[in-house]
Write a structure and sequence with these properties.
The longest helix is centred in the first third of the chain and has 30 residues, at about 5-35. The chain has one domain. The chain has helices at about 5-35, 65-90, 95-120, 140-160; strands spanning about 40, 45-55, 125-130, 135. It is about 60% helix and about 15% strand. The chain is globular, with a radius of gyration of 17 Å. A four-stranded antiparallel sheet has the order 1-2-3-4.
Length: about 170
């Protein structure tokens, strides 16, 4: 089922405002309350709050690159990619609710992290989840939006291709 253009634009803008707002506020609070302090363990160490400044991409990938390459790739390149995905989502995407929500979440997560890159040169991460020795890397709310968006886009594509869908 296709989504009307006006509904799509409103949905995208609401998702962007909510996600980017939550991401930036949580990063601000993490910086204020966690920077320079020992991490906080919650729920029998299932959740950890531990502030870090990530020079690289996902899980620090690319942090070893020279600063100008990180800026070109993670700041300028990601900004261009987000603009392209956002344009597609607002103007072209006609695949329905899951596709639009997924692409919007990808854009929101990207925008949240690109704001950090333009403002600070790194992303502010502070969340870690795990059980015992099995743990995630340290991430932020923008990363959750990005990963959720990717999952929704994948599900939308699988649903679109399934024999029951048409």
């Amino acid at each position: 089922m296709h989504m009307a253009a006006r509904k799509r634009v409103v949905l995208v803008l609401v998702i962007l405002a909510a996600c980017v707002g939550c991401d930036q506020k949580s990063k601000y609070l993490a910086g204020e309350h966690l920077r320079g302090r020992d991490g906080i363990s919650l729920a029998a160490d299932t959740f950890r709050l531990d502030y870090t400044e990530n020079q690289g991409a996902f899980l620090g990938l690319g942090a070893f690159l020279p600063a100008r390459w990180r800026t070109a790739l993670f700041t300028v390149g990601c900004s261009a990619a987000i603009a392209a995905i956002l344009s597609y989502t607002l103007v072209v995407a006609r695949e329905g609710y899951f596709q639009v929500v997924g692409l919007s979440l990808i854009c929101a997560g990207g925008i949240g992290n690109v704001i950090d890159r333009w403002a600070y040169g790194y992303t502010r991460d502070f969340l870690n989840v795990g059980l015992g020795p099995i743990r995630t890397g340290i991430f932020n709310v923008a990363d959750v939006a990005l990963m959720t968006g990717c999952l929704l886009v994948l599900l939308a594509q699988l649903r679109r291709r399934s024999p029951e869908s048409g």
